[in-house]
Amino acid sequence: MSKPYAIFDMDGTLVDSMPYWKNLGRDYLISKGIAVPADLRSRLLKMTMLETGAYFGSLGVRGGPEQIVGEINELMHQNYRTVVGPRDGVGEYLEALRERGVKMCVATMTNAGLASTCLDRLGLMRYFDFIASCEDTGIGKSSPHIYQLAAGRMGARQPEEVAVLEDAPYAARTARDAGFYAVGVYDPFSEQKQEELRGIVAEYIADYREAAAALRREASQRKEKL
Fold first, then answer.
1. Which NCBIfam families does the record cross-reference, listed alphabetically (predicted)?
2. DSSP string spanning 167-190?
């Protein structure tokens, strides 16, 4: 990756949070002492958050849908504040990019304050100039708006100057179609989507440590030629 600017997704790309999202409904019901239906995951895939709140109310959770949703969100927030860890080797990769002088930021669906808390706890926030959150814009990653906003704040003049690192195929496609240099990041949580992701991106990172080593080899070879 030889671009002067880089925009990183957070969940599944910088931090290993997807398993917590996957089990959030189950963990919430357990915390309330409610038996977990065998088909819970398949049911929740088809529901909005408010529908989830209403469904959990039908299972015996006290409170209206809005209150239940607030409690579910707080449970995930607690995970960000305490237990969500970094993707393996990501610190080494970020350090290698910083050595190259790459300017970096985060574009995430997660609340910016919460994302900052998580990344700061993990020692990763120091690599980024700022966090841009889709929660603030009201526009998700099916639109390139968040990437365009972040690129402009970093000072990029053209999207081709900017690498966008994503683990989700749909988000990588959005970035690519808007002219950004799309980089796919392997996430074991989305194993079944890796072939699709590889077909979208210009570059694919299967292992952050290997990618960091490759960046440093390139830098060393460049110095030798000077």
1. HAD-SF-IA-v3
2. SSHHHHHHHHHTT-EEEEE--GGG
Token reading at 185? 């990041």
Structure tokens at 125: 């926030």
| Helix H or strand E segment including 215 | helix 208-225
DSSP secondary structure letter of residue 126: G
Sign of the dihedral through C-alpha 128, 129, 135, 141: negative
Q: Is the pLDDT of residue 226 over 80?
A: no
Instruction: Write the DSSP assignment of 69-92 as a string of letters.
Output: HHHHHHHHHHHHHHT--BPTTHHH
* Mean per-residue pLDDT, 6-15: 97
pLDDT in the model for residue 84: 96
Q: Facing residues of 106 across strands? A: 8, 131
Domain ranges of the chain: 5-16+85-225, 19-82
Give the separation between CA 212 and CA 111, rounded to whole angstroms.
28
Q: Kindly give the interhelix angle for 65-82 and 112-121, rounded to the nearest 10 degrees.
A: 30
Task: State the CATH architecture for 5-16+85-225.
Answer: 3-Layer(aba) Sandwich (3.40)
